Structure formats: structure tokens, C-alpha cells
Here is the input.
Amino acid sequence: MQQIAQGAEAKLFQENEMILKQRFEKTYRHPLIDNILRKQRTRQEARILEKLSAASFPAPRLSDFDDKRMEIRMQQIEGPLMKDVLHEKHAEFSREIGRRIAELHNKNIIHGDLTTSNMILAKDTSQINFIDFGLSFTSDKVEDKAVDLHLLKQALESKHHLIFEECFNHAIDSYTEHSENGASILERLQKVESRGRHKAKK
Ligand SMILES: Nc1ncnc2c1ncn2[C@@H]1O[C@H](COP(=O)(O)OP(=O)(O)OP(=O)(O)O)[C@@H](O)[C@H]1O
Ligand SMILES: [Mg+2]
Here is the structure.
């Protein structure tokens, strides 16, 4: 088994076109709390991946999970991370990202960590696949959807500074076209952002 990545919470291994994601102990947390959190995130990620495959949403298919070993096994999506290719066709990719987020939100799935490191441009289908659903949850609240978009905006701004405004505008246009409730969510996004600005001034 070959380790391919280590994130903040998990180590990822690749074996026979499968990915094993193993959440390791965080020693700065109390062991009981750490166990609860890792169990929750492992289960939640598995549950959401199952929902997404049932809906044919482009995300890895779940193979199995074990909430004692804190691991999930899923399909490997081959291809570059969106963070490394966004600039190549930024308008088209940003529109696709916006449309896919609208599809998630229409199913009341909040991703929770929308960054271009959590998206892979699949080599075989040329579709943008979403990964890393450990912080995902279900909610029909306009607020949760707006915050999800706000996180995307911040991620674009920090990692794709030169094209970020264009990218975010394309993503939002396409989000609005495909969202069932786009107008209220965008209105809330404005409020979320003005809250952020007030906080920054303090
Ligand atoms: N199904 C997959 N197919 C291909 N590569 C993957 C897959 N899942 C994860 N990866 C690779 O591993 C990296 C880290 O995975 P992931 O984002 O799920 O973990 P993380 O950032 O540590 O997550 P967490 O927020 O749960 O701590 C990804 O950026 C990607 O390069
Ligand atoms: Mg990640």
C-alpha cells in the first residue's frame, strides 16, 4: 500500500485503484472527544458518498467503511486536482463547479470544505469530481448553503488570486441557474460577507 497524501486529519493510501482514507488520532484532543469526532466524520463521509452515488453525482464510489478503524475505502478518481488546472479553462471549470454545488445544495448536502484541492478533474469522464466529505452534513438552511459558498470564495481568493473574481462570478452565475433557491441563498451570502467584514474591522 502506498501513501499518497496526508491531510490535517487523515492519511490516504492507494492500492489497486482504491483509496483508503484513515483518520488518525489527534493527540491535542481529549481521547474520548477525538474518538467521537473521528467516528462521526468517518460515518458521515461514508453516508454522504453513498447518497451521492445513488444520485450519480460525480464523487468516489464508497467501497466500505469501518468506524472502529476510522477508515473508508473508496474508488480512486484519477486525474489532476482542480487547484492545478483551474487556470487552464477557468470560466468553463468555474461554471461546472457552480452547477455541481447547486446540485449538492438542491439535495440539502453541504460540503463544508469547498476548495479546489477537494475537486479532481477525472481523466476518464472529464467531469469534476468532488471529494473530502468529512465535514459535510445535510441541511436545508439558506444560511448553511450561503456559508458553503462563502468558503468557496475564500478558497478561490487564497489559492487563485489572479483569476478569483472571474472564477467566483462564473461559479455563482451557474449556481444561480441551477439552484432551486438561488435568490435567497445569494441574498444571505451578502449578509454572511458583511458580517465577515465587520468582524475584520474589530
Ligand atoms: N477518491 C480519491 N481519488 C483520488 N485521490 C484522492 C481521493 N481521495 C483523496 N485523494 C487525494 O488525497 C488528498 C487528501 O484527501 P482528502 O481531501 O479526502 O483528505 P484531507 O484533506 O486530509 O481531509 P480531511 O479534511 O478529512 O482531513 C486529496 O487532495 C487527493 O489528492
Ligand atoms: Mg482535502
Remarks:
- Helices lie at 31-54, 82-85, 90-106, 142-159, 164-178, 182-201.
- The longest strand covers residues 10-15.
- Residues 4-5, 7-10, 12, 19, 21, 60, 74, 76-77, 81, 113, 117-118, 120, 131-132, 134 surround adenosine-5'-triphosphate (ligand 1) (CB under 6 Å).
